[in-house]
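General statements about sequence and structure are easier to judge against a single worked case. For one protein, we set the task of working out the structure tokens from the amino acid sequence alone. This step matters because it turns folding into a mapping between discrete strings. The amino acid sequence and the backbone structure tokens for this protein are reproduced below.
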Amino acid sequence: MTVIEETTPTAVRAAVPADTDTDTAVEHQPQPPRPRRIGGVTRTGVLSLCGAAASALCVTVLLFGRLAPFSGALGFTVTAYLVFLVVYAVLTGLDEDGQAVRDRVMTVVLWTAATLLFSGLFMVVGFTAWRGREALPHANFFTQDMQAAGPLDPLTHGGIAHAMLGTLTMIAIALVITVPLGLACAVYLNQIPGRFSRFVRTIVEAMTALPSIVAGLMVYATWILGLGMQKSGLAAGFAISVMMLPIVIRASDVVLRLVPGNLTEAAEALGAPRWRTVWHVVLPTARSGLATAVILGTARGIGETSPVLLTAGFTTALNADATSGPMVSLPLAVFNFVKSPEPAYIARGFGAAAVLMALVLVLFVIARVIGGRGPGHQTKRQARRTARASRKDVERFEDLHAPGLSLFEPPGEPHPATAPSAPATGETD
């Protein structure tokens, strides 16, 4: 009989027969389950990807060249990708369980979708910048208008200063109107549920699909034809705000729903009224998401062309007065430039489109700076400000609760702790 070593667990020693070897007993010991590794690059995963890609390419070439009468680059790509997913799932299933196989396949699908998205974005931005490379290096392109330049003039004459100023003016008017109304409506939908709020939410969702030309016609009919006002940047700002408002409301409503309910409950439990809870708790917590909502609305409104054409007209001169006279925006200037057959005008159109994308990027950066970080994350400046406020609160509480002071004693009466004591005598009353 072989004696089992003391290091062997008691359960194993009790379950193993006396004539069993020690090594065999240790091998039969149950092992704890190992957690599955999520993410990361492994040699098996890389080999599975490469093998699935090679197999998909070979199978697709056989299908399109020998076995089936298939043709077309799009069909070849789609077929190769589907075969790749199937082969990759089979190869992964040789070493992993079903849950891991589904996880790996969905990871590949998501990476493919992200690659296609960023590839399309890179192609759009790169193509626009490449076609506008002839106009962008000239300084006059940013400082002059097209009043004294014609289609046959070179790129050293004329520019898009009038369109840049018009776009900034219109979007500023639209933001002044949209941001307060949109945030107030989102707060109403989030904080005051009821039958009327459901009706308002339905109208907002319906306005999201409103065609831009309809918004331009509405402002044109009411502001210009009905009230007798002239076409101007102000009217275009009204039309753009109609397009931006439902986007800002819906996005802000979704963001405000993500604010934890225990924050508002804690504020109301401390006695804060509803408006103070919203102003000091809800809005600061959702500030980063609200900035994103404003950016989404701005990106929708800054690219509109038809409402601007109906309400602001068209001009080639620089007009800084938003209340009178026609005004042009960058999208409208791009449309006017690229429809011309002249190469100089086409180059100006692509240059104006590149400036429009850069302007959207600048507005996005400004909004992110104003919006700050997410809830629970502070910058160094915000942390210093919070620390200063905390120190002031500590000093204030220390002054209120200092010894010898009382908040509930009438003025003029000394506190018992500070009142002069009577001379000590041996007599008692």
